[in-house]
Design a protein that fits this description.
Layout (H helix, E strand, L loop, with lengths): L2 E3 L18 E5 L4 H9 L3 E2 L8 E3 L4 E5 L7 H9 L3 E4 L3 H9 L12 H12 L3 E8 L2 E11 L2 E9 L4 H16 L3 E5 L3 H5 L3 E3 L1 H11 L21
Parallel strand pairs: 1-2, 9-10
Antiparallel strand pairs: 2-4, 3-4, 5-10, 5-11, 6-7, 7-8, 8-9
Length: about 240
């Protein structure tokens, strides 16, 4: 049975999540910074669209990318080096949100509505959400954003307006996470793009075990690096 949350209700144990649809755990509550941080610390994320209530998810299995397992193809490495891309960090967070919310070729709608964008903008102002942006010729052509807690990164969404532009942002993200001692990116659910880059599904219990060990670290000090060119980590 789906749990409905009031403003002050805690999340139920993730083991109560439905099998169909996979991982649906609860509905309701709000998207306050405190609620979102509590969700991420428990392996829960919001995902809803249109007139739906706020829906909270914790799927099993969970798609993750260990930063040591990133796969950079020859064509992607060539794009990163030769297409004139520049990767910046946290210089256009709002623009990345808007781009991720735009219509996709296979879907006229968006799950990243105004309420969600406002919530992640608040997380960004609080220092928890970050954007990695691929620029070329002064134009934003791709990027991604996500949430950092402790030494855990939760990837949320990507967009691309040029060949490999979102992948180049991901390569830069992984390089930065390695530098900061982050071993794991939560990718939530499987996509062919993420699988091609080295992400894989693991049981939810294994994900929660890794998560518990990482979210309680103090985040390494210092600003997230603002890059002038994309790094390509060794495979």
């Amino acid at each position: 049975m789906l749990t409905w949350l009031g403003p002050s209700d805690p999340f139920p144990p993730v083991e109560r999540a439905l099998k169909t649809p996979n991982g649906l755990l609860a509905a309701g509550a709000d998207l306050s910074t405190e609620r979102l941080l509590a969700a991420y610390r428990r392996g829960i994320f919001p995902w809803f669209s249109g007139d739906e209530p706020i829906l909270w998810w914790s799927p099993d299995p969970r798609m993750v990318l260990y930063t040591a397992e990133l796969k950079v193809s020859r064509s992607l490495a060539k794009s990163a080096r030769n297409k004139g891309y520049e990767v910046r960090v946290d210089t256009a967070f709002g623009a990345v949100l808007e781009a991720c919310a735009g219509p996709r070729a296979d879907d006229a709608g968006t799950w990243l509505g105004e309420q969600m964008r406002a919530a992640y903008a608040r997380l960004h102002r609080a220092g928890h959400a970050h954007s990695f942006e691929t620029w070329r010729g002064g134009a934003l052509v791709g990027g991604l954003y996500g949430v950092a807690l402790g030494r855990m990164f939760f990837g949320e969404s990507m967009f691309s307006r040029a060949t490999d532009a979102s992948k180049v942002a991901l390569v830069a993200l992984v390089a930065e996470l390695r530098r900061r001692g982050f071993p794991l990116i939560d990718c939530q659910v499987r996509t062919p793009l993420l699988a091609a880059l080295g992400a894989r599904e693991i049981p939810r219990r294994a994900f929660l075990r890794d998560l518990a060990a990482l979210v309680h670290y103090d985040e390494p000090p210092g600003k997230w690096t603002r890059r002038t060119e994309p790094d390509v980590p060794a495979e």
